[in-house]
Design a protein that fits this description.
By secondary structure, the chain is an alpha+beta fold. Helices cover 45% and strands 16% of the residues. The chain contains 13 helices and eleven strands. Helix 7 crosses helix 8 and helix 12 crosses helix 13. The radius of gyration is 29 Å and the shape is elongated.
Length: 380
């Protein structure tokens, strides 16, 4: 046979093989694309207290669930999924888990490894400690959550439960000092160690709000040019901003003062000193529930300050509190508070028949944006 014909036959045969391979690979590629499309087209799941999970499509929810299941079991890797995910999707899913699931405090979310091959995906899990240490940490964490929830009574309204949770964290946590530690960015840091950064405060608040059956959302933004994390909370069908860390002034070692300048604010008010993007996932807070008005700590005019302080001092003595709070739009300095405070203190002491309250007080700003203050009172 002519060598040229043999060569042509060989080339033709090779072409047929190449075409067959291309068709086969195309078929596989089309198959996987159809699988991806079908997964994305499936109606996503919806869960209570999981705003970020609910924002994902069904395919991404599968990855979310596989990572959560692995973390819950403290496994080395997640189950294998028959889908592929790019790094952008993977990082988004990991961020959603971190925002929704504060009880997974022991996961090193920034070190998780996406592994995929032949349209199959699994995640290499990384933890902050060894498994036996984690098991002990989980037990301490559960005990801390239970202890905090003992303060939240079933008879309370959602507003009262939220306020109790905020105040519990103010009393039991402080801003973590010294060199930055990963654990201080977790709910474990806030609830067990009693030291946390802003994200630790926010994750702890979400954990307790979840336990109280109150919907809340973690908000990532910035304040004063630095990254910051806080919460949005749904009370009676409306969302409000709650920044527990900015409510915690940590005045003195005993930390017996409380501040509520960042309790249940609207978008307009929080944006005076907080920045964040109004993504579709974040609800709108169109109004605020002014804490000071709701709790009788608000004076409309300077003339009304004495009566407000009088009522607050009586209540503080009854509750054995070492502080009272006040918001009056007309006050400009501590000098505007001194005269009405001393008059109110005198009235309370006279009613009690003894000098229960000492004629000394200290004033601390609750926020930098308005005139809300916390007044430290002293007993004889």
């Amino acid at each position: 046979m002519d060598k040229r014909k043999i060569l042509w036959y060989c080339l033709f045969g090779l072409l047929i093989i190449v075409l067959a391979v291309v068709v086969s690979l195309s078929g596989i590629w089309i198959k996987y694309k159809i699988m991806d499309y079908e997964a994305i087209s499936v109606e996503p799941d919806s869960r209570d207290y999981s705003t970020y999970y609910n924002s994902l499509n069904y395919k991404d929810q599968l990855l979310y669930n596989s990572v959560v299941d692995a973390a819950t079991e403290i496994a080395d890797e997640s189950e294998i999924l028959n889908y592929s995910y790019d790094m952008e999707v993977f990082m988004n899913v990991v961020g959603c888990i971190r925002a929704d699931r504060p009880e997974l405090f022991y996961v090193d979310f920034e070190a998780l490894v996406l592994q995929h091959s032949n349209h199959k995906t699994k995640v290499g899990m990384v933890y902050l400690e060894e498994q036996d240490v984690i098991t002990d940490m989980i037990a301490k964490y559960d005990d801390a959550v239970d202890s905090a929830m003992e303060k939240v009574l079933p008879s309370m309204t959602d507003y009262e439960k939220e306020l109790t949770i905020n105040d519990y964290l103010l009393d039991h946590c402080r801003y973590a000092p010294g060199e930055r530690q990963q654990i201080s960015s977790t709910a474990y840091g806030a609830l067990v160690l009693g030291e946390a950064y802003c994200d630790g405060y926010a994750y702890a608040a979400k954990q307790l709000l979840d336990k109280a059956y109150i919907d809340s959302v973690i908000i990532y933004g910035e304040t004063e040019g630095a990254m910051h994390v806080w919460n949005m909370v749904q009370i009676e069908g409306q969302y409000y901003h709650l920044d527990v860390m900015w409510n915690d002034a940590d005045i003195g070692d005993e930390n017996k003062l409380r501040f509520h300048g960042y309790f249940n604010l609207s978008d307009d008010v929080i944006k005076l000193d907080h920045k964040y993007e109004n993504k579709d996932i974040i609800p709108y807070a169109v109004s605020d529930v002014n804490y000071y008005k709701k709790t009788g700590c608000y004076a409309e005019t300077a003339e009304g300050i004495e009566e407000v302080l009088y009522n607050q001092l009586k209540l503080a003595v009854e509750q054995k509190r070492e502080y009272i709070e006040l918001l009056c739009p007309e006050t400009k300095s501590s000098e505007d508070i001194e005269a009405p405070y001393m008059a109110a203190l005198k009235r309370v002491n006279e009613e009690l028949g003894s000098d229960v309250l000492y004629e000394v007080f200290s004033i601390y700003d609750a926020t930098a944006r308005d005139n809300s203050i916390t007044i430290q009172i002293f007993y004889n």
